[in-house]
Amino acid sequence: MPVNSYCMFKDVGEESLTTLIILGSVIVLVLVSFVILLSYLFTSKKNKLLREKQLMKSQFEQELLQTQLEIQEQTLKTISEEIHDNVGQVLSLAKLNLNTFESSPEKKLQDTKQLISKAINDLRDLSRSMHGDRIAELGLQQSLADELQILENSGEFSTGMTITGEPYKLAPQKEMVLFRIVQEALNNTIKYSKAKNITVALNYDKENLLLHITDDGIGFDTHAKTGIGLKSMQNRAALIGGRFNLQSAPGNGTSITIELPNP
Prior knowledge:
It is built from 6 helices and 5 strands; from the N terminus they run ααααβαββαββ. It is an alpha+beta fold.
C-alpha cells in the first residue's frame, strides 16, 4: 500500500474515532442531563405532594379543633337552656309542693319525690353531656340518642332513632364530625322548621354508613336558600370523605343524608 494511502486511511480512522468519542460523550451528557432533570422533577413533585398533604393535615386538624369548640359551645348552650326551662321548673314545683305541704301531706310528699327524682335524672343526663370526650367514650349512637333525649325532654318535639345493619366503630374524629353535623341539623330544625317530629337513622352496611336526619317541618326551597349552616355541614361531610345530600321543599319537611364509605 502506498504511503500516502496509508496516511489518508489512518487520518480517516482517527477522525472517525474522535467523532465517535465526541458523539458518545454528547449522548452520555444528554442522558445524564435527562436523568438529573427527571430526578429534579420527581423530587419537586414529591415535595409538592408532601406540602399539599401537610396542608390538608393542618386544615383537617384546624377543622377538627373548630368542630370540638362548636360542640362544646352548642352543648353548653343546650345545657343552660335545659337547666333553665326544665330542671329549674321541676325544682320550683317541688318547692311549691313543700310550701303547701300541710294541705295534703301524703300526696304532696309523693309528688315532691317524683319531681326531685326527675330533676336528678335530668341533671345526670346533662352531666354526662358535659363530658369533654363523651362522643369517643359513649360512641356515636349513644351520643345521638342523648341529644335526641334532650329535645324530647323539652316537650316541644317527638324524636326517634333507628339503627339497621351491624353497627361498627368509626374513627373518633369521624364520629365527632358526624355528631357535629347532626347537632347543626337539629339546631336548624329547632330554629326554623316548626317541626314536631324529628328522626335520626343510622344504616350500617359493608360499604357505607348512611346517616339520615328527617323532620316534618315547613321545609324550604333548596335552590333559593343556601345558608352558612348548610355549607358548613356539606364541607364537614367532605372533610371526612362523605357525601352530603339535602332534600326539602315548602310544606314537605327536610331530609339530610350523609353517606360515608366504610374504610
